[in-house]
Design goal:
This protein is an alpha+beta fold. The chain is built from four helices and seven strands; from the N terminus they run H-E-H-E-E-H-E-E-H-E-E.
Length: 126
Amino acid sequence: MPKKRMSDKSFAEVTASLEHTEGSDPGTGQLSPASSGELVDGRGRLWTRSRGPLDVRLAKRLVRGADEMIIGEGAGEVLRPVPAEGRDEAWELLRDRLEPGGPGTHQAYEFRSEDDRVLLYVEEFC
C-alpha cells in the first residue's frame, strides 16, 4: 500500500488559493446551498442537491468521479471551485473534517445539473 502523501499546506492556505464566487449571505436570511438544495455556480449553472450529507467513502469516490467540486466556506457564503488538479490535495485536508467522530466541521453533498453533470459540494458549517 502506498504511503499517504502529506500536504505541506494548511487547509486555510489551500482554500485561500482557490478562486471564489459569492454564495449565500446569512445576513439576508438566504439558506446555504446544502439547506436550500440549490446552488448556482460562478458560470451561472444551476445545481440541485441529489444526495447528502454523504459518508466519507462516497465523498472520496466523488473527489475523483465528479465533474466539478466546490467548497462552500461559511455555510456557503463563499464558494471556492476546486480545479481537477487540486482535488487530491483538498481531499487530504478535508477528509478528517468530514469524519463523524472527528472535528466534523464539514459535510459533503452530491448535486446534479440539468444536463446530468455531477458536483461534489463540501460545506463548512458551524
